[in-house]
Amino acid sequence: MKRVTRAVLFFAALIGVWQLVYMAKIWSPVLVPSPLSVARYLESATLDGTLLGATFVTLRRLCLGYVSGVLAGLPLGLLTARFKLMADTLGLIALGLQTLPSVCWVPLSLLWFGQTETAMFFVVVMGTLWSMIIATENGVRNVPPIFARAARTMGSSGLHTWTHVMLPASLPFVVSGMKQGWAFAWRSLMAAEIYVTILSGFGLGHLLHYGRELNAMEQVIGIMLVIIVIGLLADKILFSPWERFLHRRWGTEKA
Amino acid sequence: MTLETELRNESPSKLAVRRISKRFSARGRAVHALDDVSLEVSEGEFVCLVGPSGCGKSTLLNMIAGLELPDEGEVLSDGHRINSPGRDRMVMFQESALFPWLDVLGNVLFGLRLKPGLTTAERLDVARFYLKLVGLEKFSHSYIHELSGGMKQRVALARALAPNPRVLLMDEPFAALDALTREQLYGDLQRIWADRRKTIVFVTHNVREAVCLGDRVVLFSPHPGRIREQFHIDLPRPRDINSVSLAEHASEIMSALKQHTTALNGEASE
Question: Nearest chain A Cα to B91, which residue?
Answer without folding.
Answer: A153
